[in-house]
Design goal:
Blueprint (H helix, E strand, L loop, with lengths): L5 H6 L8 E4 L6 E5 L5 E8 L9 E8 L5 H16 L4 H10 L3 H11 L6 H19 L9 H10 L4 H20 L27 H16 L5 H13 L3 H5 L6 E2 L4 E4 L7 E4 L2 H11 L22 H11 L8 H12 L4 H8 L4 H5 L6 H23 L3 H6 L6 H5 L2
Antiparallel strand pairs: 1-2, 2-3, 3-4, 5-6, 6-7
Helix pairs in contact: 4-7, 5-7, 6-7, 8-12, 9-11, 9-13
Amino acid sequence: MVKISKRAVDALEASEGKASYLWDDRLAGFGVKCLPSGSKRYIVKYRLHGGGRSAPQRWFSLGAHGALTADQARDLAQQALAAIARGQDPQGAKVRQRQAPTLTNIWERFEREHLPTKKPQTKYDYEAQWRAIIGPKFGRTRVEQITRSEVDKLHKSLRQTPYRANRVLALLSRLLTLSEVWELRPAGSNPCRHVDKFKETPRTRFLGSSELTRLGEAMRTMVASAELSPGAANAIRLLLLTGARLNEVLTAKWEWLDAERCILALPDSKTGAKPVYLSDAALAVLDDQSSYSASSSFVFPGAGAEGRMINLRKPWTRICARAELQQVRLHDLRHTAASIAVAQGASLPIIGKLLGHSQAQTTQRYAHVDTDPALKAANAIGQAMGSIWQASTGTSQLARRLAPGGETSRDVDSI
């Protein structure tokens, strides 16, 4: 009778460059494998589902001799054989675990099957989120092992940029939902489901009249001194005059221009096909731009022989520095166009049509009241009421409050 023990395992040697085996007579299927290198591993040999000789045979490794003692290996072998008796397949489970897809595998399939159907900007955003955040964090992780706590930790690490954090969470959730659809995770197990999104506060920045004046002067000066290309300046002017999105302007082609109807007929945009309405001033900008892009199909060509202008980030940064504009994004020109339309009395439905919104509530974000008209209205109220105040109180209490040695805060609070 052979019982696997430390002494027996230590004495086991490989023969003639081949692996040798030592089987335990007391626990069927439990053994030790000695490789030609001299390393030894405890193993269990079994047949699937308790079958006879016709059933597939499996070899399950318990661990290396030295890391495990003979007694520990025996205990593990008994547990494995008990699981096999219950119909389980420990080696098959190990193989499936080793071959289980990682999140990178899910992304690659998503990239093949879903990404081509997305709009160019959405595709760009998804790829950027994967490369910069999701891929480095979870790319090598088996998709079934991603947990809610790990997702929550990643999301919270991006708290300084809440909008970006929420977009990353949305893309990760989409990938994990697809892994469920593809039966690579249990149904209903998406760990993103119970992660609270950050509150997003819509930007309300738009340019006042003095800022618009400085912007215009800065661009004229920079174009004259060759610090800014005429094409970049015209693109920015068109953004402001039309309220169009940056990508809509930079991807525009001359064939889309219908000067007779005063529109730029975009075949596709964030909300589908849409017309960009062109005022006389916008048409004048396009007329000027035609002299710089006559040989290109794009209204705003790139620096090379073909292609278009990709972005305006760098020139816009220089313009803002020259014009002393603080915290102004290119997208805020779209806000500004909407605020000017509101100040001129345009209705929200008209503004929504101008901006190409598919839903009325979206327009509400752009319906900012310009500071200058509001200030004028406040002054009108003050002028109308001024005579009454002067008759009842004499000298302005605010003037007395601001004057040297004026009233105390308690006196003002009592008014």
